[in-house]
Amino acid sequence: MNASRPVRLDIDQLIDNPATRVLVCCGSGGVGKTTTAAALAVRAAERGRRTVVLTIDPARRLAQSLGLRQLDNQPRLVRPDGFTPRGELHAMMLDMRRTFDDMVLAHAGRERAEQILANPFYQTISTSFSGTQEYMAMEKLGQLAATGEWDLIVVDTPPSRSALDFLDAPQRLSTVLDGRLIRLLSAPARAGGRGLRKVVGAGFGLFARTVSTVVGGQLIADASAFVQAFDSMFGGFRERAQQTYDLLRSAGTAFLVIATPEPDAMREAGYFVDRLVTERMPLTGLVANRTHPVLAAVPSAAAVTAAEALCRDDPDSLAAAVLRLHADRVAVAEREKRLIARFTRAHPTVPLVGVPALPADVHDLAGLHEIGLRLAGV
After folding, report:
1. Signal peptide: which range, if any (predicted)?
2. Is the dihedral of CA 125, 126, 130, 131 positive or negative?
């Protein structure tokens, strides 16, 4: 295989395959992941699959593009006038706090769940604890997959390298919740109600007073109460995380790395590809988004010489302006080809599809339909 000519990624074959159950779109910020995820979902629905697209990006672009006023934590049917897919299209946006609440209600009894939900420490970590968003994204994906309602789940991811943090989220949260501080906070409950000092010695008393001075004694008390209530449901918490992680590594999942043909974005794409390979995740290919191919033949040397002479003799003419524009477009296309070829040399087995840029931003279903066509190479 010529290293400069990668294997072509066949998008229609991917989304038509009934074995494909989950598509995860990842990549750095500003490369069009949300638009690509929505376009893939639209095309899959048009081709007969019952599809749901889940966005983790807090921006409202997806709802606007789908003709919806807003998205929330439950899938909403997308069926505006003129959109009549052979399948179905649903869309939703992750609500981190609501998903955490639902998980608590599912794993804890009613009384214990009410204690947890009312706890100020829980109310803080459920919206701002490091890794919570990524874990809840996995939780929501697991919930959607468990219903069996969907032929295909398309996942949009956060706009940065943190898009892959959900691969670490279960282990990170397990480490925190199994860590020394958490064990100390939950010690009274595990010791039959005896005081912290009696359980872990005077050293912890000094530690607790120090921490209380920094973060406040009430926060320590809230944290301890939260951990004691949460402890009984943590096994189910980790078990579900592992189930979703296994789903991500299964043959029914496909990871698509999205990038634009720019140096920084292609470097980030290389990082994502390497990370997915290291984690043994099912990497399916790269989408080179917003490319600028030149369909006309590159001018011959004689034509270029003549064009340069025309621009020099009559720089304000329309013909000169068109020639300059064409020359700029050729230069952009050649630069993009070099960047993509460099990526392909480094990752020769990764299939790739280029998606030509549209003349205007995508803001409706018609635009998503057009992006779907370009993804499919139609």
Report:
1. none
2. positive
Contact 146, 240 (CB under 8 A): no
- Kindly state the DSSP code that residue 364 receives in the 8-state scheme: S
Is the separation of the CB atoms in 166 and 135 below 8 Å? yes
317 dihedral zone (left: phi>0; alpha: psi -120 to 50; beta): beta
For residues 36 and 34, what is the distance between their CA atoms, to the nearest angstrom? 5
Is the pTM higher than 0.70? The answer reads yes
In the chain, where does DSSP find H-type helix?
11-16, 33-46, 61-65, 96-107, 110-118, 120-128, 132-147, 169-177, 180-185, 187-190, 196-200, 202-215, 217-230, 234-248, 263-278, 301-313, 318-346, 365-375
**At 290, is the secondary structure helix, strand, or coil?**
strand
In this structure, how many other beta carbons lie within 10 angstroms of the beta carbon of residue 203?
Answer: 9
Q: How many CA atoms lie within 13 A of 167 on its CB side?
A: 18
Using the CB atoms, write b or e for 264-302: b if 16+ within 10 Å: ebbebbbebbebbeeeebbbbbbbbbbbbeeeeeeeeee
Does pLDDT of 192 surpass 90? no
Cβ partners under 8 Å of residue 72, min gap 6: 92, 93, 95
Report how far apart, in Å, the C-alpha atoms of 330 and of each of 3, 196, 261, 323, 377 are: 22, 72, 14, 10, 21
Arithmetic mean of pLDDT over the chain:
78
The 10s digit of each residue's pLDDT in 197-208 is 444 444 444 444
**SS3 track for 331-361:** HHHHHHHHHHHHHHHHCCCCCEEEEECCCCC
